């Protein structure tokens, strides 16, 4: 007997909302970059698809999760790169028209792998919205939804909350004060952010949990590991040694989030999820920014089963 639509399991493990785009990667001799009339870039200047939503989707798909991505994408060469990336990696993409064009950014990458991102904010309009019918349909078919903080995801939060599907978000380098990030922080069941701009990470994590509905809040801290707040208990997550030289930190936070969500959807403890995230984030730092490559499930589980530092 064929199950009725109401009893059929979700067709998608994770719906990723927003965050598609194209980056131009430039390796520079140092950061900050001193003023000069010109620089010779011997390593080349490369443009490839992949911003935060794309990288989370890639990481989830590489770990074997059924992944779908929804965003506004331009009818332009940059949009073609985004569509091709998803097609090559077998990731479903609902690309709605964006007349302002596909998002673009320039990443300056230093010799130590640190990066400085320059975002083109002209590739969005104040009235941008996801069609409610499309959003409801994709949400209903998903076990989990990861919401990036790009426009128009903020406008979608009330509908997503009403849908009753667990949510996650990444606040990136939030300073703990900017009010734009607060609706995302308070609506999500799992919140990721970087500790880079936080003066008191522990206080910020507790405040997110107290004011919102998050059951897990993670602040990544690079080589210092991460902070994990789960069910009111704060623990430190040890950093994982990269398996190869660090060449670029771009995408490390997205890889951490993808692996953490893989663990969560597999029924693992928050501590195990965070270890998965640390392993995936360390792996991402060894991948040149010009490549779209995520750690696979077998490799992740093999490293997670190995000795801990």
Give a verbal description of the structure.
- This protein has a single domain (15-33, 40-305), classed as UDP-N-acetylmuramoyl-L-alanine:D-glutamate ligase.
- The longest helix has 15 residues, at 270-284.
- The protein has a nine-stranded mixed sheet with strand order 5-4-1-8-9-10-11-12-13, sandwiched between helices. The chain has a four-stranded mixed sheet with strand order 3-2-6-7.
- With 309 residues, the protein is an alpha/beta fold.
- A hairpin with a 2-residue loop joins strand 12 and strand 13 (233-237).
- The chain has helices spanning 52-62, 77-88, 132-140, 153-163, 182-187, 201-211, 252-265, 270-284, 297-305, and strands spanning 12-17, 22-27, 45-49, 67-73, 92-97, 104-109, 115-119, 142-147, 167-170, 190-194, 216-220, 226-230, 233-237.
Attribute tags:
disordered N terminus; 309 residues; kinase activity; alpha/beta; four-stranded mixed β-sheet; PfkB_dom; kinase; Carboh/pur_kinase_PfkB_CS; 13 strands; globular; UDP-N-acetylmuramoyl-L-alanine:D-glutamate ligase; 9 helices
Task: Quote the distance from N terminus to C terminus.
Answer: 51 Å
- Give me the count of strands: 13
Q: What is the average per-residue confidence, as pLDDT, rounded to a whole number?
A: 92
Query: What structural class is derived from the secondary structure elements?
Result: alpha/beta
Order of helices and strands: EEEHEHEEEHEHEHEHEEEHHH
Name given to the CATH homologous superfamily? Ribokinase
Helix content: 25-40%
- At the fold tier of CATH, the topology name is UDP-N-acetylmuramoyl-L-alanine:D-glutamate ligase
What is the count of DSSP helices, taking H or I runs of 4+ residues?
Answer: 9
CATH architectural designation: 3-Layer(aba) Sandwich
Tertiary shape: globular
Rg over CA atoms: 19 Å
Organism: Streptomyces yokosukanensis
Keywords: Kinase, Transferase
Protein name: Sugar kinase
Pfam family, one: PfkB
């Amino acid at each position: 007997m064929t199950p009725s639509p109401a009893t059929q399991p979700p067709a998608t493990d994770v719906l990723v909302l927003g965050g598609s785009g194209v980056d131009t990667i430039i390796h520079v001799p140092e950061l900050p970059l001193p003023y000069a009339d010109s620089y010779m870039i011997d390593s080349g200047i490369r443009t490839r698809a992949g911003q935060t939503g794309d990288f989370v989707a890639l990481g989830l798909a590489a770990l074997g999760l059924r992944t779908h991505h929804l965003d506004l994408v331009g009818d332009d060469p940059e949009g073609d790169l985004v569509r091709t990336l998803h097609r090559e990696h077998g990731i479903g993409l609902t690309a709605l028209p964006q007349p302002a064009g596909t998002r673009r950014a320039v990443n300056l990458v230093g010799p130590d792998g640190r990066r400085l991102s320059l975002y083109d904010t002209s590739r969005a309009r104040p009235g941008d919205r996801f069609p409610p019918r499309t959003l409801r349909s994709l949400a209903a078919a998903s076990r989990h939804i990861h919401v990036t903080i790009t426009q128009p995801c903020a406008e979608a939060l009330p509908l997503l909350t009403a849908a009753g599907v667990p949510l996650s978000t990444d606040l990136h380098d939030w300073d703990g004060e900017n009010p734009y990030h607060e609706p995302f922080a308070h609506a999500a069941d799992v919140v990721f952010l970087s500790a880079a701009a936080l003066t008191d990470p522990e206080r910020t994590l507790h405040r997110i949990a107290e004011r919102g509905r998050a059951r897990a809040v993670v602040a990544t801290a690079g080589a210092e590991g991460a902070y994990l707040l789960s069910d009111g208990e704060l623990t430190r997550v040890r950093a994982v040694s990269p398996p190869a030289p660090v060449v670029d930190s771009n995408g490390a936070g997205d890889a951490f989030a993808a692996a953490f969500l893989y663990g969560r959807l597999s029924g693992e403890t928050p501590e195990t999820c965070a270890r998965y995230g640390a392993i995936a984030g360390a792996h991402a730092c060894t991948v040149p920014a010009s490549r779209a490559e995520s750690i696979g499930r077998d490799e992740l589980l093999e490293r997670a089963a190995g000795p801990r530092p």
